Amino acid sequence: MQKFLQEKKGEMLELLEQLVNIDSGSYVKEGVDRVGTILKEKYEELGFVVEVKKEEEYGNNLVIQHRDAKDPKIILVAHMDTVFPEGTVAERPFRIEGTRAYGPGVVDMKASQVELLYAMKTLVEFGLTGYENVQIVLNSDEEIGSITSRPLIEKHAKGKRYALVVEPARKDGSLVTARRGGGTYTLIVKGKSAHSGIEPENGRSAIEELAYKIIQLHHLSDHERGISVNVGLIEGGTAVNIVSPNAVAHIDIRISELEQMEYLEQRIKEICATTEVPGTEIELEGDISRPPMVNNEKTQALLSVVREVGKEIGIEVHDTSTGGGGDASFTSARGVPTIDGLGPVGGNVHSEEEYLEIDTLPERTLLLVKTIERLSKRTR
């Protein structure tokens, strides 16, 4: 099997080049759908049935399972979108330099799409237990919070015994067993303009009110408990000599435990329910939309299986936590044991220097194959 995947490495890289050289940013529906169409055809060639969940604004989502599947117990999740805008491919298309491949979304996560497809190909080719026991969700909007695909992932996570998310492994090869949850808010303050030299007493400063709110919001942070409230962007005012009639703050929230969601939502609403500057008004928009992925006993039990498999094929499996959000949070919050970061190794994601360690593509595909096979035997 290892030899088979090594022999397929060139073929895998050809498909990777094809996928990378398609602009498929979250807002480039046509590009995301092109990626989905290519993958759909590849899966159908292997005997899988692909259900296209059409979307108007964003790319279509795909739900995939083998025609022999009856009640699959493993859900696999991988996103087709990237963070890069249309036109990026023309500026810096797929390329290989030494042992690394480069290009927009090469490791986050188009290489993972190749890995997942070839894991299924390997299972089918060798007649191994597993290909009939998986349900795959390929989603189109993970990079912008899985707006359309979250309900789909949560729906298909129901009744599953295991969830495997094929985000890229960390630079050191570690898998991901915990992710912080979070969300965003927009705080809009309306005041009253007045000339700051002629009649400042008639003005009501939206910026002053916003300043009070920023301090109060930042005091909600508790880094020891994994809570972070950050006002990362502000706007306001019309001119330096005018009392500001408007101000806006954009707020990023990060949490580490599910119970923190309700607490923070309530406290933020309380802070924004009243004003310090008379005559100003406040509007609050947003929510904490992504739950955390928690490293619990179920996670550790699943990780031990992956470690056993890794040991058998010569990969020392380590795990880590990350502050970034991901689709693994949705399956984890539904009580499904979840491991993330099962894709190939790379780094510098979301940047011009994003790269894939090419040799890890067949290696991590084998790890995924063997893990699916092992877990499938456990669900019998």
From TrEMBL:
The keyword Hydrolase applies. The active site is at residues 81, 142. Pfam families: M20_dimer, Peptidase_M20. The keyword Mitochondrion does not apply. SUPFAM superfamilies: Bacterial exopeptidase dimerisation domain, Zn-dependent exopeptidases. Residues 177-277 form the Peptidase M20 dimerisation domain. GO terms for molecular function: hydrolase activity; metal ion binding. Keywords: Hydrolase, Metal-binding. Coiled coil: none annotated. This is M20 family peptidase.
